[in-house]
């Protein structure tokens, strides 16, 4: 069951300077919410999207006092703040990823102390047990596949622990926590270079660079046969809000079930670009599990909804946006939309 949206609610989005947080704020503005607050530790010049009618604040949410400042006077908190990136980042920065546990813990404390009744936590498919993801042709991961626990080291453990914190703050203190496990979100207005980008953006960048430079080559991490599913940002935003306003207590998948190999993803981007590249494979590069996709049985049953934007359609929009940024000479640190 989904509750009716109240446009008078005072909502704070933590991680608002990031890809998903910025998209959620943009969507809430379009829906007519009257009081929105965005919080991120990055300087505002580095926020991917920011808006003059939003109460934007630069705060380091690893600090407890900053979390209390961020949530003062709020009715709902969306926690999308984390030190994270694609596989190239999380495999090499396990301690930094683990430190994000401070963000969620202090935000939950602030919610309790300030009486903020609703709390959303953005978890990840990285919580799922590694022993269930050793083949490329695995079935979609169901919510119960997170246990017995064997998550991605560092990042996945932080997410799994924070999920449990949300559960206990709900059980012990009555905060209405909601948890979604995101599966590989992609789209415009996100990171596409610098080491934190994920596979769809990285492949778009590499194909565009090859086309612009005339070098008809692309390097692929791993053997290209590893499989994933990728969720377009618009589906992620819609699903996040639906879960927040639902009565679903347990963590739930939010991801596409359209599974492809990395080689197939490169095929799609090459076709969009109208180019065919020579492929080389870096078998020593970070590549994650062999196979991962979302089982959407629970979200279809509970919300009568699931992500529906085709990978090809979403990649066309993502490619076009990254192409424009690269032609203009922009990078991850200079992409800011103000409207």
Detailed description of the structure:
With 339 residues, this protein is an alpha/beta fold. The chain has a domain at 10-187 and 232-256 and 295-309: NAD(P)-binding Rossmann-like Domain (Rossmann fold). It is built from eleven helices and 15 strands. It has helices spanning 19-31, 64-71, 87-90, 94-98, 101-114, 155-173, 199-213, 233-244, 262-273, 297-303, 311-327, and strands at residues 10-14, 35-40, 49-50, 55-58, 76-79, 118-124, 176-182, 185-186, 217-221, 227-229, 231-232, 252-254, 259-261, 278-282, 337-338. The protein has a seven-stranded parallel beta sheet with strand order 4-2-1-5-6-7-12, with helices on both faces. The chain has a two-stranded parallel sheet with strand order 3-15. Helix 1 (19-31) crosses helix 8, helix 7 (199-213) packs across helix 9 and helix 7 packs across helix 11 (311-327). It starts with 9 loop residues before the first strand and ends with a strand. The model is unreliable at 332-339 (pLDDT under 50).
| N to C succession of SSEs | EHEEEHEHHHEHEEHEEEHEEHEHHE
Oligomer: single chain
Shape: globular
Helix content: 25-40%
- Under CATH, the topology of the domain at 10-187 and 232-256 and 295-309 can be stated as Rossmann fold
Q: What's the overall average pLDDT, rounded?
A: 93
Uncertain ranges: 332-339
Task: Supply the number of helical segments.
Answer: 11
Could you tell me how far the N terminus lies from the C terminus, measured between alpha carbons in angstroms?
Answer: 34 Å
**How much of the sequence is in beta strands?**
15-25%
What is Rg? 19 Å
The largest sheet has its strands arranged as: 4-2-1-5-6-7-12
Summing up helix and strand content along with how strands pair, one would put the structural category as alpha/beta
Report the top-level CATH class of the domain at 10-187 and 232-256 and 295-309.
Alpha Beta
CATH architecture of the domain at 10-187 and 232-256 and 295-309: 3-Layer(aba) Sandwich
The named CATH superfamily of the domain at 10-187 and 232-256 and 295-309: NAD(P)-binding Rossmann-like Domain
């Amino acid at each position: 069951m989904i509750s009716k949206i109240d446009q008078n609610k005072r909502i704070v989005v933590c991680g608002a300077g990031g890809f998903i947080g910025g998209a959620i704020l943009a969507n809430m503005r379009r829906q007519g919410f009257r009081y929105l607050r965005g919080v991120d530790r990055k300087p505002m010049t580095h926020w991917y999207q920011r808006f003059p009618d939003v109460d934007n604040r630069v705060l380091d949410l690893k600090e407890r006092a900053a979390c209390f400042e961020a949530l003062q006077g709020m009715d709902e908190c969306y926690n999308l703040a984390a030190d994270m990136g694609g596989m190239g980042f999380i495999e090499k920065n396990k301690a930094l990823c683990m430190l994000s546990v401070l963000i969620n813990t202090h935000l939950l404390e602030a919610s309790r102390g300030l009486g903020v009744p609703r709390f959303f936590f953005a978890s990840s498919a990285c919580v799922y047990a590694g022993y269930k993801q050793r083949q490329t042709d695995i079935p979609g991961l169901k919510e119960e596949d997170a246990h017995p626990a064997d998550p991605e080291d560092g990042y996945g453990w932080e997410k799994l622990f924070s999920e449990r914190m949300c559960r206990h703050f709900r059980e012990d203190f009555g905060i209405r926590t909601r948890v979604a496990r995101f599966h590989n979100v992609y789209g415009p207005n996100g990171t596409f270079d610098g080491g934190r980008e994920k596979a769809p953006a990285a492949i778009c960048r590499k194909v565009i660079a090859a086309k612009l430079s005339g070098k008809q080559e692309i390097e692929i991490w791993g053997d290209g046969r590893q499989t994933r599913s990728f969720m377009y940002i618009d589906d992620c935003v819609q699903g996040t809000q639906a879960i927040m306003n639902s009565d679903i207590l347990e963590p739930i998948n939010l991801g596409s079930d359209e599974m492809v190999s990395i080689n197939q993803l490169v095929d799609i981007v090459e076709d969009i670009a109208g180019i065919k590249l020579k492929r080389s494979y870096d078998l020593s590069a970070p590549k994650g599990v062999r196979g991962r996709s979302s089982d959407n049985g629970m979200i279809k049953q509970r919300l009568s909804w699931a992500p529906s934007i085709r990978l090809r359609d979403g990649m066309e929009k993502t490619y076009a946006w990254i192409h424009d940024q690269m032609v203009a000479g922009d990078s991850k640190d200079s992409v800011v939309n103000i409207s």
